[in-house]
Amino acid sequence: MTPDRFGRPLRALRVSVTDRCNLRCRYCMPEDEYVWLPRDSLLSFEELTRLVAVFAGLGVAKVRLTGGEPLLRHDLPTLAGMLGRVPGIADVALTTNGVLLARQAAALRAAGLRRVTVSLDTLRPERMREFARSTAHADVIAGVAAARRAGLAPLKLNTVVVRGFNDDEIEDLVEFARPHDAEPRFIEYMDVGGATRWSADQVVSRDDLLRRLAARYGSVTPLPDPGSSAPAERFRLPDGMTVGIIASTTAPFCGTCDRARLTADGTLFLCLYAERGLDLRAPLRAGASDDELARLVAEAWRGRVDRGAEARLAVARREALVPVSGLRADPHREMHTRGG
Ligand code: SAM
């Protein structure tokens, strides 16, 4: 399929399978109440699989299941299996907060899921209680261990670094990852929809993170980019361990972004920061053929000019992207609806 207006091909699809989450992370879902997608708007496994097949026909080879919290979706291993069997899909991965992972890791692997990324922002249960309003820290740790036992590899651990919250745990998180054969990845706090408490002073930049790692470990060597469009820059510590940094806020990578996002109700987003998406559910449920659906997606992608994170760099006084009232009026603007 033709690339977008900046020559970027469509190669990867993030599929959000639910907008619900069992955590309330301060950087993503800090409010007391949310407007949820109507239940009957959520796509069935068959509908999701059909859309993924349409995307595969347009060149998508990689699918990542996300949410909300994807493991809240009943019987996720079955969906992982269905998507893994779509011709052209070479890789199905999962991003999860890990709370429900221990009990599902083996079934996910058996269904064909290859890789998992677990969000782990702190090693301190009391911090998680305060920051994510959850007492499930031990379950997350058990989930990480279960993923490794189940052979879900490579295993990645994502940490959103927030100044004054967990920026004193960077080295501890690296050391935690080591015996789990996991790659720690540090993510800059982004001013996406839903991050209503975002402020620039809470962002710990890529450069700060590199300085911290160098102070503790010595030389931190950038690994050559294999030409992939992966968001993480990878670095090697002197002992061979690798660490990723995702600098979405201070050094965005829009120029190589080959990802589209599908929400649980079948809305296509071409950028995490996009104001509007394209409704694929209505034509799907009105009986559109695969060719017609493919035409809609291809047309949208061909016209894509989004460079959301780079555009934010140009904003002089940066604050939360969308006010709470805007999120209530359109929950599609929430990070937890778009899948991160
Ligand atoms: N619930 C799953 C999880 O926790 O991984 C999947 C959905 S979550 C929205 C996907 C990713 O987005 C997580 O790694 C999360 O930390 C990240 N995220 C959410 N809000 C963010 C923000 N304001 N800045 C940077 N990353 C964010």
Distance between the termini: 25 Å
Overall radius of gyration? 19 Å
Number of helices: 12
Give the fraction of residues assigned to helices.
25-40%
Instruction: Note the run of SSEs as H and E.
Output: EHEHEHEHHEHEHEEEEEEHHHHH
Low-confidence stretches: none
What's the story with the biggest beta sheet? 12 strands, mixed
The whole-number mean of residue pLDDT values reads: 96
Structural class: alpha/beta
> Assembly type of the shown chains?
single chain
Number of separate strands: 12
Q: Bound small molecules, which ones?
A: S-adenosylmethionine
Question: SSE layout and pairings?
Answer:
Blueprint: E1 12-16, H1 45-57, E2 62-66, H2 76-84, E3 91-96, H3 105-111, E4 115-119, H4 125-132, H5 137-149, E5 155-161, H6 170-177, E6 182-188, H7 206-217, E7 221-222, E8 233-236, E9 242-246, E10 259-262, E11 267-269, E12 278-279, H8 281-285, H9 290-302, H10 308-313, H11 324-329, H12 335-338
Parallel strand pairs: 1-2, 1-10, 2-3, 3-4, 4-5, 5-6, 6-9
Antiparallel strand pairs: 7-8, 8-9, 10-11, 11-12
Helix pairs in contact: 1-2, 1-9, 2-3
This protein binds S-adenosylmethionine.
Tags for this model:
single chain, twelve-stranded mixed β-sheet, 12 helices, 12 strands, globular, binds S-adenosylmethionine
Task: Characterise the protein shown here.
This protein is α/β, with parallel strands linked by helices. Helix content is 31%, strand content 16%. The protein is built from 12 helices and 12 strands. Strand 11 and strand 12 form a beta hairpin. The two termini are 25 Å apart. It binds S-adenosylmethionine. The site of S-adenosylmethionine (SAM) has 21 residues, from strand 3, strand 5 and helix 12.
